[in-house]
Design a protein that fits this description.
This protein has 488 residues and is mainly alpha-helical. It has helices at residues 2-20, 22-29, 33-50, 54-61, 63-83, 87-101, 104-115, 121-150, 154-158, 160-174, 188-207, 217-239, 253-269, 271-284, 288-312, 317-335, 344-370, 378-416, 429-432, 440-477.
Length: 488
């Protein structure tokens, strides 16, 4: 378990480190807020596309080789991210990071569950998740933020390389060799149609705001391709003898509801980590090291959450998931009340509450989803499970970023309407304070402040969407049937 966890935490560490240094990367690459968000969304998208291939890859080359190739390739891609000189190159290496690291989490999760009796699934899931939380998300963003502030954002990637080498060596000496049968045939029709559907949806959400949505031929074409590809995927999967993804697994009610909930969980899990760093540095003037500590506090809360889940898991799993989504709703509502004068201490506590929520949710969610699924479908079911988790993250991040950009532009136009010679308040020195509209520098300062406030409103709207989604998930939880006794 130690070797597998060490290799698996690399992905979560890199994602959280990248979230902490997004503002500095944005300045270094001269990118806009939505462009730099591509380094996260396309990384998650690549993970989502490759994750379903985990079962076929394992059957083709074995678990040991997949773990070794995944950790080794991921480490090399991480080093290349630190060497990137242009935004396009950085996105390319981030895509490779996601693709090479995609099989690690579902494969490691399946390995851990296979090695222990089914009755210990809750305990094993808690230990696995808690270890991943402690090793990566606590140390990574905090240390990465300090290195980025002291040296450069590149060192936040470079610091992961030694851990990747150690993880590769541990797996090399610990994991046994696999006994392989005949190499299975990959359903290229199903894989290609699914990849095209996911990729086009992500492009629509990422580029729609910039291209004015359906006023753009590109957006219309991508929507048509996405709908057509998804239809082909569903039709082919229901009629093929050996489809890429077995949709008949959805006949298991627990598993089907688990997929809906993990998709929602994915929507909520990483969104604040992408939104907060840009808000805090660009509008509130926070340095990278403080942002790294804020992100790191999420890992501390997650550790406590996994400890709590070990005991809550003995009760009805619906109670644990309700408690977790309730904490996410609380943290989202809290974020809708902050302003640009928010203190670091308040953000530390809010981040810890988010981590506590995700830790409490994960164990009962994963145990519930697979409690009635047959063991022979475990690898394939785990791949779909993590596919929807990653897909939910990438889609919701794109939706939130589009909401921020659209709301910022609209509110800037609305707020700037009052800056006019006909506004008598602007001619009152006691009302204007240090602001002035009589000089070009003064107008520039006012424009900058209006943009800050308009951007803040956009972020608050995105946090409101986050809160509403969290509250809606609580209703979904109670569609889950009562837990049955699990066989050993």
């Amino acid at each position: 378990m130690v070797a597998v966890v060490l290799g698996t935490t690399l992905y979560s560490t890199t994602l959280l480190v990248a979230s902490a240094i997004l503002p500095q990367m944005q300045g270094s690459m001269a990118a806009t807020a939505d462009e730099i968000a591509w380094t996260t969304t396309f990384n998650i998208l690549a993970t989502a596309i490759v994750t379903p291939m985990t079962g076929w890859l394992v059957d083709s080359v074995g678990r040991r080789q997949i773990m070794l190739y995944g950790v080794g390739g991921f480490t090399i891609a991480t080093y290349l991210c630190g060497q990137a000189e242009a935004l396009e190159t950085l996105i390319l290496w981030r895509v490779l990071q996601g693709a090479l690291g995609a099989p690690l989490t579902p494969l490691a999760n399946a390995l851990v569950l296979d090695c222990f009796p089914r009755r210990q699934a809750g305990l094993v899931s808690s230990l696995f998740g808690m270890s991943a939380v402690v090793l990566g998300p606590v140390i990574g963003p905090t240390l990465g933020g300090f290195l980025a502030e002291a040296y450069s954002w590149r060192y936040a990637f470079f610091m992961i390389v030694p851990a990747g080498i150690i993880g590769w060596l541990a797996l090399y000496f610990v994991m046994p060799k696999d006994t392989l049968g005949a190499t299975p045939r990959l359903d290229w029709t199903g894989f290609t149609s699914l990849a095209m559907a996911i990729g086009c949806v992500q492009l629509v959400l990422s580029r729609g705001q910039r291209l004015d949505w359906f006023e753009s031929i590109e957006i219309i074409a991508e929507c048509i391709i996405a709908v057509t590809a998804f239809y082909l995927f569903i039709a082919h999967s229901l009629t093929a003898s050996r489809p890429f993804l077995n949709l008949r697994l959805l006949l298991d009610r627990n598993y089907a509801l688990g997929l809906v909930l993990v998709f929602t969980y994915g929507m909520l899990n990483f969104t604040p980590l992408v939104l907060l760093p840009g808000l805090l540095q660009a509008n509130a003037g926070y340095p990278d090291n403080i942002i790294g500590i804020i992100v790191g506090c999420r890992g501390i809360g997650g550790t406590i959450g996994f400890f709590c889940a070990m005991f809550i898991g003995r009760l009805d799993p619906r109670l644990g998931m309700t408690l977790g989504f309730g904490f996410l709703t609380l943290s989202g509502a809290w974020l809708t009340q902050i302003n640009l004068n928010v203190t670091p201490q308040e953000l530390y506590l809010n981040s810890a509450v988010q981590g506590l929520a995700t830790g409490v949710i994960w164990v009962p969610l994963s145990v519930m989803a697979f409690s009635t699924l047959e063991q022979r479908f475990m690898s394939e079911g785990m791949a779909i499970f993590h596919l929807l988790r990653n897909l939910g993250s990438s889609l919701f991040i794109s939706i939130a970023v589009a909401q921020i950009i659209q709301s910022t532009n609209a509110n800037y136009s609305r707020l700037s309407e009052v800056v006019t010679p006909y506004n008598r308040v602007l001619s009152m020195p006691w009302a204007m304070g240090g602001w002035t509209v009589d000089t070009l520098p003064g107008l520039t300062q006012i424009s900058h402040e209006i943009n800050r406030q308009a951007s803040m409103i956009g972020y608050l709207n995105a946090f409101s969407l986050f809160t509403a989604t969290s509250a809606g998930a609580i209703l979904l939880v109670w569609l889950v049937p009562r837990r049955r006794r699990i066989a050993a």
